[in-house]
Amino acid sequence: MGRRSGAFGAFAAAATTPAKTGAFSRFADEAPGDAPKVTPVRTKRNSPAPELSLDEVRRLLEELRTVSNSAKFQKDSDELRRMDWGAFKKREAVAKLLSIFWKATLRKHGFSIDGAGFPNLLQVVKTSGKSAAVRPAFWLLGSSRQRGQAPLRAALLMVRQRAPPILRLLVVLVGLAKSHEAEDGHESRQWYSRIPEIVVLDPSMSSKELKAKLSEVKDATSHFGPARRAVLLKPGVYPHDMWIDIGYYTTVAGVGRGPESVVVPDAWVSNDITDQATNNFWRSLEGVTVTAGRTMWAVSQAAPLRRAIVKNELWLSHKAGYSSGGFMSDVEVNGKLVMGTQQQWYARQVSLPPEGLYCTGGWNYIFQGAVGLDKKDMHACDGGMTEKVSQVSGIPRSAEKPYLVFEETSDWKIYVPKMLKNPAPGAIGKDRESQIDRALYIDSDVFIATPDMSASDINRGMATKEGMLLTPGIYRLDEPLVITSSGFVLLGIGFPTLVSPPGRSCLQVTDFLNDVRIAGIMLDAATPVLGFYAEPLLQWGSRGETDARSAEASTGVASDIFARVGAFKYLGLGCAPVRANTLMEFNSDNLIIDNVWAWHADHDDCSNFTMTPNNNEQEPMLQHKFKSDKCWSQHGVVVNGRNIIAFGVAVEHIIDGHLLVWNGEDGQLYFFQAELPYHSRLNLESRYAAYVVPPQVFNHFGVGIGVYIIDGHPAYAALEISAFTDIRKVLTVVIGKQNQLFRHQVCQVMLDGSRICHQPTHCQWARCYLATLPHGDVEFYTSGRIRPMVLPDVHLLPQPEIKQRLILDAEKRKEVSVDFEDTEAETKFAIKEDQDRHPRPNQRFASLAMAVSLPLGAAALLLLAVRATFIFLRSRSDACNDDEALSLRQTAHESEGTMTVTLI
């Protein structure tokens, strides 16, 4: 067949191509190609269509007939989006021809010409020069954008069922034209048009308009205010005089396919009013290329930098102000990466130029899957402390955060990246689209939630869609949001904040789901402190028995989730104290935890404390009495699931329990930062630790573990781990006092309850390091084979000494003890059936507890006071004897050079 030419040739090629079946909304199999840009032809409103010569009309008419006779149009055809819109060189001719055919054919089939909307459509066809087609089937079937076109839509539906091919072709052409409405009405019908918290910018806007919108966003937010904002940057190159100052609770995201599609001159975060960056929380930047000579990203926790290209230098602090970050992933830096005053930082899949790392201070930097990091830079940054900078060679498995994409050819989508095993090091780059697992169309696949909806409305909406976009705002829930289907994607933009119902979770994920994604949300506790029990703010899976479904499933990814407990005015509780037993609990297996922060507030807006440059020193913060000090928390993060990998976990100020508890087998944690509470003595006197792996856990790996304590009270130990836990690069820091505030850095707890405690290998000022720790090793014996736990290399750190190797036969629930020096000697030991060592009250008990919690509130407080007094007296009475026993045990351990593991 010869090549078709002219205005409709490209459409004919698409229309005769075999189409994929299924809902028209699914175009995710392959990304649409970019259509050529066409300069729009501007015409005045209601101007008549230009006259056509008789020869032009005859030629177009003949071509249309030729095409329509052979075209087999299917409304679900993916090929429509490949139309060569550059072929429409005579838009006016097409408009005139459509007008003639439209009226004549409708009359022929007995339809009256209502005219409602038709002149507008014709005008759009005449003036539309935009190159992209936006899914005509939604126009044909009547989407929410075209509710004002009901008479015309009804006619089209009837025509679609009875008309010959030529009329169906005309209907599609008109639908395509309608999808690109006139510029004065298109934006008003977008999904975000009635959400003022979402600001969508376009490079075609004037510099004045861009600056005004960005200024409004920055001025709206505050440290503990209710305002939430999202700034979405459409693809293109933005004016050179536009700069983006990113404030609290603000997402700035380029919505191109990759960061190279959105080019901005500058986006930055500098020191706040205190001349520090230690309070620069809850903001994010992603999906952009920044061309400034120096990009400033002076942030602390909960401020991720993702999918970015920095053309020149990237500075992670501002001047000499302190900073306490931070997280970045999939970032390319073409100039120097200047760490500045950052205390700690985690970077995954970053690309740096040669000699691209520069730092003068800092405590704990982890680079995983990085390109361009050389030993010379690492040694220079260490400043003689070889554990400051660590490079982890590989990434066992990971998945990047889902993100919004705007495409001219198919409108708005959510791209969902693949879960990858051992991804290539460095920023993803131009191979990004090959790593997209699926795309969800905003129009059809995604439920758009707004803060004025009830929790039940949101749950009903979630049940009918494949994903949910949680838009900026405060969601005051009266029941938990519950994810019940595999493959579900929950993406928040603008730091949407879920406020928990009393005693209940903010968000729950049911058991045995596959490939669930949750990203970009905040969780706030609102259970009164007198309540008896509160469910985790995030509960991923239940604490029930697991089965084969759980073991085989790849259950999902939690990205950029930030939970907190504190007294804040916007909660509307009159600054009353609240509680959270556990802020985040992960019970399902095979999860990926990707940047989370659990925070018990150490300051708030309910306590007459104002941040100024003069009162942000340690003394005022340490001595001031905050309402949040009366709030209650037990654990920040609890991990019960098996085979869970975490990248970047931070927990701070939990007052009545361990900060992180990892009960699940085969866990891996890359980068941990904790700050022990300094407004309460209860935690430290009760010997709670920042990082706990119970003695019954046989396989756990952690690297880059930093635990801090501020001037005040001594801590018993920073970490309490099992004898089989492989921990590398442990850092403890005492801020404002001598390092002896930590009695022990790490304590290994044996199965019989005995302990071996360790001191750091070396200290500098108040910073103390422990590179590796001798431990027992476990390999699982399954189907006649030993399955070792595969771990990436950690450069510049010595390999830990293995004192004893155990082989666990998981099928028979037997353990085989093999001496590491004599592998022929085997002794079998029986092992107890695996039990849930930390049972949680069931739902019935929880409901009953909530029913009686208020009458028993006073009694609960009294019991709590008695318990605290008892713990305090007990710690005072046995401190000397216990410390002496531990010292003797540690001395024996060091002298014998062996470790004995007693199996129960």
Automatic annotation (TrEMBL):
The chain crosses the membrane at residues 845-866. SUPFAM superfamilies: Pectin lyase-like (SSF51126). InterPro entries: Pectin_lyas_fold, Pectin_lyase_fold/virulence, SACTE_4363. The keyword Glycoprotein does not apply. Keywords: Membrane, Transmembrane, Transmembrane helix. Residues 23-49 are annotated as: Disordered. This is Uncharacterized protein.
